[in-house]
Design brief:
This protein has about 325 residues and is α/β, with parallel strands linked by helices. It contains 14 helices and 10 strands. β5, α4 and β6 form a beta-alpha-beta unit. α9 crosses α10. The termini are far apart.
């Protein structure tokens, strides 16, 4: 499978763009575990044009991450074009346009999934950015605005006609946010539309190797994108690839090994942000969501303490205590 000149072999697995999640620290770890393409956090075109420091920091990329896509969102074509040119200068492999973010502060202002209510503007933005840059432009969107407006089959053709190199589809409407189950039926319909010739990437609720395999085989997608299933569990890419290659699930990683990966991520976050407390706070979403501590008896208070820790000594002391207790319980 190819996105323009970027080639992928086998059954490609992509790390979905997620705000406050897919920073370089996390992307590098996911890449090491087999993510074939990683995406930046979404970047506001307006903030980038205004040279907002925190936004410019999101443009940081490393050679070890490649191939890498940087994702932009905005509601006006001129701003998106100007921002795309700034992004292009940083030399990512792909520029991705976010037409899928459902949160109110984005969609409510007419950007992200908000553009599902103004398709002419969405197409104008897409066409303008494609024409303005030389690197591949892709799009990530949803099935439609709500249950009564699932327009993705037609929209996919329109976006393809704008010149995009690939299309990622999250199997929910904007009104669903992240609730309910992702519906892959329409993703499969887009992929099997004889008019479509660009790669179709499916996204939504891929949390197990078995589900990833089903998505490739049942819906025929060219790649599977993993979002929340990777938070606090970056090794999911390795687990899925092992399943593809061997037809069985990989033996569970040792508890201590999984904890070491979480600690590595915290350290990488601190290094990237350049501040111990801020790096720890930035890592909390992963510590809160990770399945590593699932099933540990009476863990609630320990989890609260872990998520309140503000120094490495405090945080790692709590985590090391959990590991010691776990090891003792296994004797």
């Amino acid at each position: 499978m190819k996105i323009a000149d970027v080639s992928f072999s086998g059954k490609p697995l992509f790390l979905a763009p997620m705000e406050d999640v897919t920073d370089p620290a996390f992307r590098l770890i996911c890449k090491r575990f087999g993510a074939d393409l990683v995406y930046s956090e979404f970047i506001s075109a307006d903030a980038l044009i205004r040279s907002v420091k925190r936004t410019e920091q999101k443009l940081t990329l490393y050679e070890e991450e490649r191939p890498l896509a940087i994702q932009l969102y905005g509601r006006e074509a001129d701003a998106m074009v100007e921002a795309a040119k700034i992004v292009e200068a940083e030399k990512p492999d792909i520029i991705d346009l976010n037409f899928g973010c459902p949160v109110k502060k984005v969609a409510g202002k007419g950007a992200g999934a908000g553009l599902l209510q103004d398709i002419p503007k969405m197409l104008k933005i897409t066409r303008s950015v494609v024409d303005a840059v030389k690197i591949p432009v892709t799009v990530k969107t949803r099935l439609g605005w709500d249950e009564n407006n699932k327009i993705i089959v037609t929209l996919a053709e329109q976006l393809q006609d704008c010149g995009i190199a690939a299309l990622a589809i999250h199997g929910r409407t904007r009104s669903q946010m992240y609730k309910g189950d992702a519906d892959w039926t329409l993703i499969g319909e887009v992929k099997n539309n004889p008019r479509m010739h660009i790669p179709i990437i499916g996204n939504g609720d891929v949390t197990t190797p078995e589900r990833a395999k089903e998505c490739f085989e049942r819906y025929g997608v060219d790649a599977v994108m993993i979002g929340r299933g990777a938070i606090g569990r970056p090794w999911i890419f390795e687990e899925i690839n092992y399943f593809f290659e061997n037809g069985e699930c990989k033996a569970p990683y040792p508890f201590g090994w999984q904890v070491d990966i979480l600690k590595e991520h915290v350290l990488r976050s601190i290094e990237w942000i350049g501040d111990e407390r801020k790096g720890i706070v930035h890592s909390r979403r992963h510590l809160a969501a990770t399945p590593v501590f699932k099933g540990i008896a009476d863990f609630r208070q320990t989890r609260i303490a872990m998520l309140r820790a503000e120094t490495l000594d405090e945080l790692f002391g709590i985590i090391d205590g959990v590991v010691a207790e776990h090891e003792n319980s296994q004797k």
